[in-house]
Amino acid sequence: MNPIYLQALSFQDVHGPNEDCIYAAADMAVELGIAGIDIEDRLLKSYEPHYLQALAHQIESRGIRIGYCGLIVDFNAPISSIPDEINRAKLLLDAIPYLGVESIRIPGNGVVGRQSTEGTFNAVRSKFQQVLDHAEGSGVTVYLHNHNHGSVPSTGEQVLRLVNELNNPGLSYVLDTGQFQGSPGASGEGSPSNIAQDELYESIDMCAPIASMVRAKFYFAQSGAERWLDYPRIVKSLKKSGFDGPISIVYEPKGTVPSTDALPLAVRDLTDLLR
User: Fold this and answer.
1) pLDDT value, residue 224
2) Which of 68, 86, 137, 262 is the most buried (most CB within 10 A)?
C-alpha cells in the first residue's frame, strides 16, 4: 500500500501555524502507524543547522520520517514578488539537508490584477527554472504543486505544459486532489457549489500518470469519508495510472471537527480505499 503521511500544517486549527504542529503530526503518525509527516517552511523557528538537526532527531527518534518541506506562497501577490520568493526557496533548499529531507514542494503563483494567465505562466516557469538551477547537484528534488487560488498551474493542461517545457530531471510533481479548478475547497475559479465538478477529476486523470506524490485534501471528516471530493473516484484514477508513491493527507476544516479528531478518521477511510 502507498506510504501515508500527515501534513503538519493540518494541525494549525489547534496550535496555530508554528512548530507545535510538527510535533502534533509526528505523535499522531506514530499512533496511527503510518510513514511520517510533511512540513512547511513557516512552521520552522529558524534555518539554523543545530536547530534543524535537533528537530530531525526528535522526529526520527519516533521511528518516522519527514517526507518534504513546502514553501508557502502568497497567491495574492503580483509576479513582481517572485524574486523574493526565489530567494526564500534557495535558502530553504540550502537548509533542508540538515533535516534529512530530500524534497521541497513549491506551488505556482496567482494571476493578480492586470496580469495575464500566459504572462503569469511564463513567470512561474522562469521561477522554477531558477530554483532548479540552484538545486542542481544538491540531491534535493523540487516538486511542482498544482494550486488553485486563481493561480497557475491550476488545471491538468497547465501542469503538463509546465512539466514538459521545463523538461528537467530534478523536477517532480505532487498532485493536490483539492487544488485544481473545479474543487469547491479551492478559492479563485473553484466550483460555486459544494460538489467537485468534472473538470477537477479530468485534471486528476490527466496528471496522475506523472505524479510522484499525492496531497489528499480533506475538508470534512465527521465519519472519515470526505464530503466534497469523491475519493472512491480519485483512488480509482490513481490505481488506474499505476501510482504507487506516498500520499500526504491534508486537512482544511470546513466543518466543526478539529484536526485531532478528523485526521485519524481520514487516514482510516483513505487506507480502506487503497487496499
Assistant:
1) 73
2) 68
**Which residues share a beta bridge with 40?**
70
pLDDT at 258: 95
Helix (H) or strand (E) holding 183: none
CA distance 4 to 1: 9
Q: Average pLDDT of each block of 10 consecutive residues along the chain (275 residues)?
A: 97 97 98 98 97 98 98 92 97 97 96 93 98 97 93 97 98 97 72 79 98 95 85 98 98 91 95 95
Q: Where are any strands of DSSP class E within the chain?
A: 4-7, 36-40, 65-70, 103-107, 109-110, 141-145, 151-152, 171-176, 213-218, 247-251
Q: How many domains are contained in the chain?
A: 1
The grid cell for 191 is 466550483
pTM across the whole model:
0.95
CATH number at residue 246: 3.20.20.150
Which structural domain, as residue segments, surrounds residue 64?
4-274
Nearest in space to 11 (alpha carbons), one of 1, 23, 21? 21
Q: Which three cell numbers mark 2?
A: 502507498
For residue 165, what pLDDT is reported? 98
What DSSP letter does each residue of 54-96 carry, written as one string?
A: HHHHHHHTTT-EEEEEEPP--TTS-GGGHHHHHHHHHHHHHHG
Q: At how many degrees (to 10) do helices 259-274 and 20-32 cross?
A: 40
Contacts of 188 (CB under 8 A, 6+ apart): 75, 110, 148, 149, 150, 151, 154, 181
